[in-house]
Inverse folding.
Protein backbone atom coordinates (compact mmCIF):
# COMPACT_ATOMS: atom_id res chain seq x y z
CA UNK A 1 0.00 0.00 0.00
CA UNK A 2 1.33 3.41 -0.95
CA UNK A 3 -1.17 6.22 -0.54
CA UNK A 4 1.19 8.96 0.62
CA UNK A 5 0.74 10.83 -2.65
CA UNK A 6 -2.88 11.52 -1.66
CA UNK A 7 -1.84 13.28 1.57
CA UNK A 8 -0.12 16.62 0.96
CA UNK A 9 0.78 17.01 4.65
CA UNK A 10 3.31 14.19 4.28
CA UNK A 11 6.40 16.00 3.00
CA UNK A 12 9.95 16.95 3.97
CA UNK A 13 10.56 13.60 5.67
CA UNK A 14 7.60 13.85 8.06
CA UNK A 15 6.61 10.60 9.81
CA UNK A 16 3.04 10.94 11.06
CA UNK A 17 2.13 8.42 13.78
CA UNK A 18 -0.68 10.26 15.55
CA UNK A 19 -3.67 9.09 13.53
CA UNK A 20 -5.31 7.91 16.76
CA UNK A 21 -5.75 11.59 17.64
CA UNK A 22 -6.59 12.77 14.13
CA UNK A 23 -5.83 11.31 10.74
CA UNK A 24 -4.42 13.27 7.85
CA UNK A 25 -6.78 14.30 5.03
CA UNK A 26 -6.42 13.14 1.43
CA UNK A 27 -6.75 15.54 -1.47
CA UNK A 28 -10.08 13.97 -2.41
CA UNK A 29 -11.56 15.12 0.90
CA UNK A 30 -10.22 18.66 0.81
CA UNK A 31 -11.46 18.97 -2.78
CA UNK A 32 -14.95 17.88 -1.69
CA UNK A 33 -14.96 20.58 0.99
CA UNK A 34 -13.76 23.16 -1.50
CA UNK A 35 -16.44 21.97 -3.91
CA UNK A 36 -19.18 22.81 -1.41
CA UNK A 37 -17.93 26.35 -0.96
CA UNK A 38 -17.29 27.01 -4.64
CA UNK A 39 -20.18 25.12 -6.25
CA UNK A 40 -22.90 25.36 -3.58
CA UNK A 41 -22.15 27.59 -0.58
CA UNK A 42 -25.83 27.72 0.46
CA UNK A 43 -27.96 26.32 3.25
CA UNK A 44 -29.93 23.08 3.07
CA UNK A 45 -33.56 22.14 3.78
CA UNK A 46 -34.71 25.76 3.52
CA UNK A 47 -34.44 27.35 0.10
CA UNK A 48 -36.88 26.53 -2.69
CA UNK A 49 -34.38 27.64 -5.32
CA UNK A 50 -32.49 25.00 -7.28
CA UNK A 51 -29.04 25.57 -5.72
CA UNK A 52 -30.41 24.91 -2.23
CA UNK A 53 -32.25 21.86 -3.53
CA UNK A 54 -29.02 20.48 -5.04
CA UNK A 55 -27.08 21.09 -1.82
CA UNK A 56 -29.79 19.34 0.18
CA UNK A 57 -29.78 16.38 -2.19
CA UNK A 58 -25.99 16.11 -1.88
CA UNK A 59 -26.19 16.31 1.92
CA UNK A 60 -28.73 13.49 2.08
CA UNK A 61 -26.75 11.47 -0.44
CA UNK A 62 -23.85 11.71 2.00
CA UNK A 63 -26.07 10.40 4.81
CA UNK A 64 -27.00 7.38 2.70
CA UNK A 65 -23.34 6.74 1.82
CA UNK A 66 -22.42 6.68 5.51
CA UNK A 67 -25.45 4.57 6.42
CA UNK A 68 -24.40 2.00 3.81
CA UNK A 69 -20.82 2.07 5.15
CA UNK A 70 -21.93 0.89 8.62
CA UNK A 71 -24.95 -1.13 7.39
CA UNK A 72 -27.59 1.18 8.86
CA UNK A 73 -30.83 2.73 7.66
CA UNK A 74 -30.94 6.30 6.36
CA UNK A 75 -33.06 7.43 9.34
CA UNK A 76 -30.57 5.94 11.79
CA UNK A 77 -27.65 8.24 10.89
CA UNK A 78 -27.46 11.56 12.73
CA UNK A 79 -24.75 14.07 12.00
CA UNK A 80 -23.07 15.59 15.06
CA UNK A 81 -19.95 17.68 15.58
CA UNK A 82 -17.94 14.60 16.57
CA UNK A 83 -17.97 11.34 18.50
CA UNK A 84 -17.95 13.22 21.79
CA UNK A 85 -21.16 15.08 20.99
CA UNK A 86 -22.74 11.86 19.72
CA UNK A 87 -21.91 10.01 22.94
CA UNK A 88 -23.16 12.95 24.98
CA UNK A 89 -26.39 13.04 22.98
CA UNK A 90 -27.14 9.44 23.94
CA UNK A 91 -26.52 10.10 27.63
CA UNK A 92 -28.29 13.46 27.75
CA UNK A 93 -31.36 12.30 25.81
CA UNK A 94 -31.85 8.56 26.22
CA UNK A 95 -30.01 8.35 29.54
CA UNK A 96 -31.73 11.22 31.28
CA UNK A 97 -35.11 10.06 29.98
CA UNK A 98 -34.80 6.37 30.89
CA UNK A 99 -32.42 5.93 33.83
CA UNK A 100 -33.96 5.88 37.30
CA UNK A 101 -32.73 5.69 40.87
CA UNK A 102 -31.05 2.36 41.60
CA UNK A 103 -30.45 1.47 37.94
CA UNK A 104 -26.96 0.32 36.97
CA UNK A 105 -24.74 1.59 34.15
CA UNK A 106 -21.78 -0.57 33.08
CA UNK A 107 -18.62 1.17 31.85
CA UNK A 108 -14.91 0.30 31.87
CA UNK A 109 -11.54 1.81 32.69
CA UNK A 110 -10.63 1.59 28.99
CA UNK A 111 -13.09 4.33 28.10
CA UNK A 112 -12.25 7.65 26.51
CA UNK A 113 -13.48 10.48 28.72
CA UNK A 114 -16.35 11.18 26.33
CA UNK A 115 -17.60 7.61 26.80
CA UNK A 116 -17.53 7.56 30.60
CA UNK A 117 -18.01 11.14 31.83
CA UNK A 118 -21.52 11.63 30.37
CA UNK A 119 -22.64 8.52 32.26
CA UNK A 120 -20.96 9.73 35.45
CA UNK A 121 -23.17 12.80 35.14
CA UNK A 122 -26.32 10.79 34.43
CA UNK A 123 -25.62 8.51 37.40
CA UNK A 124 -25.19 11.47 39.76
CA UNK A 125 -28.31 13.29 38.58
CA UNK A 126 -30.54 10.20 38.42
CA UNK A 127 -29.04 8.50 41.51
CA UNK A 128 -28.05 5.46 39.50
CA UNK A 129 -25.01 3.26 40.08
CA UNK A 130 -21.95 3.34 37.83
CA UNK A 131 -20.47 -0.16 37.64
CA UNK A 132 -16.95 -0.75 36.32
CA UNK A 133 -16.34 -3.90 34.33
CA UNK A 134 -13.05 -5.34 35.66
CA UNK A 135 -10.25 -5.64 33.11
CA UNK A 136 -8.16 -8.80 32.88
CA UNK A 137 -4.43 -8.84 33.61
CA UNK A 138 -3.66 -7.68 30.07
CA UNK A 139 -6.05 -4.74 30.39
CA UNK A 140 -8.77 -6.23 28.19
CA UNK A 141 -12.54 -6.33 28.38
CA UNK A 142 -13.62 -9.98 28.40
CA UNK A 143 -17.00 -11.66 28.12
CA UNK A 144 -16.48 -13.51 31.40
CA UNK A 145 -15.72 -10.31 33.29
CA UNK A 146 -18.73 -8.67 31.69
CA UNK A 147 -20.93 -11.49 32.97
CA UNK A 148 -19.63 -10.83 36.49
CA UNK A 149 -21.14 -7.32 36.57
CA UNK A 150 -24.26 -7.77 34.43
CA UNK A 151 -27.42 -7.88 36.55
CA UNK A 152 -31.17 -7.39 36.20
CA UNK A 153 -30.55 -3.79 37.29
CA UNK A 154 -28.26 -3.07 34.31
CA UNK A 155 -29.98 -0.57 32.04
CA UNK A 156 -27.05 0.86 30.05
CA UNK A 157 -23.80 -0.66 28.81
CA UNK A 158 -21.38 1.99 27.48
CA UNK A 159 -18.17 0.49 26.10
CA UNK A 160 -15.40 1.23 23.64
CA UNK A 161 -15.13 -0.90 20.51
CA UNK A 162 -11.36 -0.31 20.25
CA UNK A 163 -9.40 1.24 23.13
CA UNK A 164 -7.69 4.47 22.06
CA UNK A 165 -4.72 3.66 24.32
CA UNK A 166 -4.39 -0.13 24.34
CA UNK A 167 -5.72 -0.85 20.85
CA UNK A 168 -7.69 -3.89 21.99
CA UNK A 169 -10.87 -4.91 20.14
CA UNK A 170 -13.76 -5.49 22.52
CA UNK A 171 -15.74 -8.74 21.96
CA UNK A 172 -18.90 -6.72 21.47
CA UNK A 173 -21.15 -9.16 19.66
CA UNK A 174 -21.40 -11.57 22.58
CA UNK A 175 -21.48 -8.75 25.13
CA UNK A 176 -24.37 -7.07 23.32
CA UNK A 177 -26.32 -10.34 23.15
CA UNK A 178 -25.91 -10.82 26.89
CA UNK A 179 -26.86 -7.21 27.62
CA UNK A 180 -30.01 -7.47 25.54
CA UNK A 181 -31.06 -10.60 27.43
CA UNK A 182 -31.43 -8.44 30.54
CA UNK A 183 -33.12 -5.63 28.63
CA UNK A 184 -30.09 -3.31 28.73
CA UNK A 185 -29.30 -0.81 25.97
CA UNK A 186 -25.75 -0.68 24.55
CA UNK A 187 -23.92 2.49 23.50
CA UNK A 188 -20.67 1.88 21.60
CA UNK A 189 -17.76 4.30 21.25
CA UNK A 190 -16.46 3.34 17.81
CA UNK A 191 -14.19 6.34 17.20
CA UNK A 192 -11.13 4.05 16.98
CA UNK A 193 -12.96 1.23 15.19
CA UNK A 194 -14.78 2.70 12.18
CA UNK A 195 -11.59 4.25 10.66
CA UNK A 196 -9.73 0.94 10.78
CA UNK A 197 -12.06 -2.03 10.43
CA UNK A 198 -15.37 -2.98 8.86
CA UNK A 199 -18.24 -2.15 11.24
CA UNK A 200 -21.71 -3.62 10.71
CA UNK A 201 -24.31 -2.16 13.06
CA UNK A 202 -26.92 -4.80 12.18
CA UNK A 203 -24.56 -7.71 12.87
CA UNK A 204 -23.40 -6.09 16.11
CA UNK A 205 -27.01 -5.31 17.03
CA UNK A 206 -25.81 -2.33 19.05
CA UNK A 207 -28.41 0.24 20.06
CA UNK A 208 -26.16 3.27 19.58
CA UNK A 209 -22.75 3.71 17.94
CA UNK A 210 -20.68 6.89 17.72
CA UNK A 211 -17.67 7.89 15.63
CA UNK A 212 -15.77 10.94 14.33
CA UNK A 213 -14.92 12.08 10.82
CA UNK A 214 -11.49 13.50 11.62
CA UNK A 215 -10.06 10.12 12.66
CA UNK A 216 -11.05 8.48 9.34
CA UNK A 217 -9.52 10.83 6.76
CA UNK A 218 -12.48 13.20 7.06
CA UNK A 219 -12.80 16.80 8.26
CA UNK A 220 -12.95 18.06 11.81
CA UNK A 221 -16.25 19.20 13.24
CA UNK A 222 -18.28 16.25 11.98
CA UNK A 223 -19.27 12.98 13.60
CA UNK A 224 -22.00 10.38 13.41
CA UNK A 225 -24.44 8.88 15.85
CA UNK A 226 -26.05 5.65 14.74
CA UNK A 227 -29.13 4.66 16.68
CA UNK A 228 -31.93 2.18 16.15
CA UNK A 229 -34.73 4.26 14.69
CA UNK A 230 -37.36 3.12 17.19
CA UNK A 231 -35.10 4.34 20.00
CA UNK A 232 -34.21 7.61 18.28
CA UNK A 233 -37.84 8.47 17.61
CA UNK A 234 -38.67 7.88 21.28
CA UNK A 235 -35.91 10.19 22.53
CA UNK A 236 -36.41 13.87 23.34
CA UNK A 237 -34.25 16.41 21.50
CA UNK A 238 -31.56 18.12 23.57
CA UNK A 239 -31.19 21.15 21.28
CA UNK A 240 -34.04 23.22 19.92
CA UNK A 241 -34.29 25.59 17.00
CA UNK A 242 -34.66 25.76 13.26
CA UNK A 243 -35.58 22.77 11.11
CA UNK A 244 -35.99 20.16 13.88
CA UNK A 245 -39.59 21.04 14.66
CA UNK A 246 -42.86 19.97 13.08
CA UNK A 247 -45.23 22.53 14.56
CA UNK A 248 -44.60 25.37 17.01
CA UNK A 249 -47.38 26.90 19.11
CA UNK A 250 -47.14 29.54 21.82
CA UNK A 251 -46.45 27.10 24.66
CA UNK A 252 -45.52 23.82 23.04
CA UNK A 253 -44.01 22.26 19.94
CA UNK A 254 -43.80 18.93 18.17
CA UNK A 255 -40.68 17.50 16.57
CA UNK A 256 -39.71 15.73 13.40
CA UNK A 257 -38.68 12.09 13.36
CA UNK A 258 -35.05 11.03 13.32
CA UNK A 259 -32.62 12.12 12.07
CA UNK A 260 -33.93 15.68 11.78
CA UNK A 261 -35.08 16.10 15.38
CA UNK A 262 -31.41 15.98 16.39
CA UNK A 263 -30.03 18.25 13.64
CA UNK A 264 -31.11 21.76 14.52
CA UNK A 265 -29.80 24.92 12.94
CA UNK A 266 -27.31 25.10 10.10
CA UNK A 267 -25.34 21.87 10.06
CA UNK A 268 -21.64 21.55 9.10
CA UNK A 269 -22.58 20.97 5.47
CA UNK A 270 -19.08 21.22 4.00
CA UNK A 271 -17.79 18.72 6.54
CA UNK A 272 -20.60 16.31 5.67
CA UNK A 273 -19.51 16.52 2.01
CA UNK A 274 -15.93 15.85 3.12
CA UNK A 275 -16.94 12.91 5.30
CA UNK A 276 -18.79 11.31 2.41
CA UNK A 277 -15.65 11.54 0.28
CA UNK A 278 -13.57 10.08 3.13
CA UNK A 279 -15.91 7.10 3.33
CA UNK A 280 -15.72 6.58 -0.43
CA UNK A 281 -11.91 6.81 -0.22
CA UNK A 282 -11.70 4.18 2.53
CA UNK A 283 -14.14 1.90 0.70
CA UNK A 284 -12.06 2.12 -2.46
CA UNK A 285 -9.11 0.72 -0.53
CA UNK A 286 -11.04 -1.81 1.58
CA UNK A 287 -11.33 -1.87 5.36
CA UNK A 288 -9.98 -5.40 5.70
CA UNK A 289 -6.93 -4.40 3.68
CA UNK A 290 -6.39 -1.32 5.86
CA UNK A 291 -6.54 -3.30 9.12
CA UNK A 292 -4.15 -5.97 7.82
CA UNK A 293 -1.72 -3.28 6.67
CA UNK A 294 -1.78 -1.54 10.06
CA UNK A 295 -1.28 -4.82 11.89
CA UNK A 296 1.68 -5.71 9.67
CA UNK A 297 3.38 -2.40 10.45
CA UNK A 298 2.55 -2.64 14.14
CA UNK A 299 3.89 -6.18 14.44
CA UNK A 300 7.14 -5.17 12.77
CA UNK A 301 7.45 -2.12 15.04
CA UNK A 302 6.78 -4.11 18.22
CA UNK A 303 9.37 -6.70 17.21
CA UNK A 304 11.95 -3.93 16.80
CA UNK A 305 10.96 -2.09 19.99
CA UNK A 306 11.30 -5.26 22.06
CA UNK A 307 14.98 -5.36 21.11
CA UNK A 308 15.67 -1.90 22.55
CA UNK A 309 16.69 -1.89 26.23
CA UNK A 310 14.79 0.63 28.31
CA UNK A 311 11.50 0.55 26.36
CA UNK A 312 8.31 -0.71 28.00
CA UNK A 313 5.40 -1.71 25.73
CA UNK A 314 2.03 -1.86 27.48
CA UNK A 315 0.02 -3.60 24.73
CA UNK A 316 2.36 -5.93 22.82
CA UNK A 317 -0.52 -8.14 21.67
CA UNK A 318 -3.07 -5.57 20.46
CA UNK A 319 -5.00 -6.30 17.27
CA UNK A 320 -4.92 -2.78 15.82
CA UNK A 321 -2.27 -0.23 14.81
CA UNK A 322 -1.84 1.34 18.27
CA UNK A 323 1.33 0.96 20.37
CA UNK A 324 1.34 2.35 23.91
CA UNK A 325 4.84 2.53 25.36
CA UNK A 326 7.31 4.49 27.47
CA UNK A 327 11.06 4.97 27.64
CA UNK A 328 12.17 4.04 31.13
CA UNK A 329 13.00 7.06 33.29
CA UNK A 330 11.91 9.58 30.65
CA UNK A 331 8.70 11.58 30.87
CA UNK A 332 6.61 10.96 27.73
CA UNK A 333 6.41 14.70 26.96
CA UNK A 334 10.21 14.96 26.97
CA UNK A 335 10.46 11.89 24.76
CA UNK A 336 7.86 13.27 22.35
CA UNK A 337 9.91 16.46 21.98
CA UNK A 338 12.90 14.35 21.04
CA UNK A 339 10.81 12.46 18.47
CA UNK A 340 9.65 15.75 17.03
CA UNK A 341 13.25 16.81 16.46
CA UNK A 342 13.55 13.65 14.35
CA UNK A 343 10.37 14.59 12.41
CA UNK A 344 8.33 11.82 14.05
CA UNK A 345 4.87 12.92 15.23
CA UNK A 346 3.29 10.85 17.97
CA UNK A 347 1.14 11.46 21.03
CA UNK A 348 2.28 11.84 24.63
CA UNK A 349 -0.07 12.13 27.61
CA UNK A 350 -3.12 10.35 28.96
CA UNK A 351 -4.95 10.53 25.61
CA UNK A 352 -8.21 11.74 27.17
CA UNK A 353 -8.35 8.39 28.96
CA UNK A 354 -6.94 8.99 32.42
CA UNK A 355 -8.53 5.84 33.85
CA UNK A 356 -6.39 3.71 31.53
CA UNK A 357 -3.24 5.56 32.53
CA UNK A 358 -4.08 5.09 36.20
CA UNK A 359 -4.79 1.41 35.61
CA UNK A 360 -1.31 1.14 34.07
CA UNK A 361 0.05 3.03 37.09
CA UNK A 362 1.99 5.53 35.01
CA UNK A 363 1.63 9.34 34.71
CA UNK A 364 1.32 9.20 30.92
CA UNK A 365 2.31 7.13 27.89
CA UNK A 366 3.66 7.56 24.41
CA UNK A 367 1.32 6.39 21.67
CA UNK A 368 2.23 5.55 18.09
CA UNK A 369 -0.65 4.85 15.70
CA UNK A 370 -0.15 3.40 12.23
CA UNK A 371 -2.59 4.06 9.42
CA UNK A 372 -3.02 3.41 5.71
CA UNK A 373 -0.49 6.08 4.64
CA UNK A 374 2.35 4.65 6.74
CA UNK A 375 4.85 2.11 5.45
CA UNK A 376 7.81 0.00 6.62
CA UNK A 377 10.20 2.88 5.97
CA UNK A 378 8.19 4.95 8.46
CA UNK A 379 8.57 2.18 11.02
CA UNK A 380 12.34 2.06 10.49
CA UNK A 381 12.61 5.83 10.98
CA UNK A 382 10.40 5.61 14.06
CA UNK A 383 12.61 2.89 15.56
CA UNK A 384 15.70 4.96 14.75
CA UNK A 385 14.12 7.93 16.58
CA UNK A 386 13.42 5.71 19.61
CA UNK A 387 17.06 4.58 19.70
CA UNK A 388 18.30 8.16 19.42
CA UNK A 389 15.96 9.26 22.20
CA UNK A 390 17.00 6.44 24.51
CA UNK A 391 20.65 7.21 23.85
CA UNK A 392 20.22 10.95 24.41
CA UNK A 393 18.50 10.63 27.77
CA UNK A 394 20.87 7.88 28.87
CA UNK A 395 23.86 10.13 28.17
CA UNK A 396 22.45 13.45 29.37
CA UNK A 397 19.81 12.36 31.86
CA UNK A 398 16.10 13.14 31.94
Amino acid sequence: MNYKKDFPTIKDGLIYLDSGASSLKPLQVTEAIKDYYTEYGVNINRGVYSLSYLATAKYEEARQTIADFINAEFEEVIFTRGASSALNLVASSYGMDNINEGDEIIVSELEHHSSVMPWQHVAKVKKAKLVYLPLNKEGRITVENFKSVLTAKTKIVALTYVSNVMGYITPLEEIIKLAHQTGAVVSVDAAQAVPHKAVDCKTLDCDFLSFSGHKMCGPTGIGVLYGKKELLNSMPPIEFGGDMNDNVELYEATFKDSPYRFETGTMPIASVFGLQEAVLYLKSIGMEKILKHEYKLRSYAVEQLQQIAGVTIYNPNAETGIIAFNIDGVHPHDAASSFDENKVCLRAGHHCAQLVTKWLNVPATLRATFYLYNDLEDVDKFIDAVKKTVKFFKEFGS
Notes: The radius of gyration is 22 Å. The CA atoms of residues 159 and 188 lie 5 Å apart.
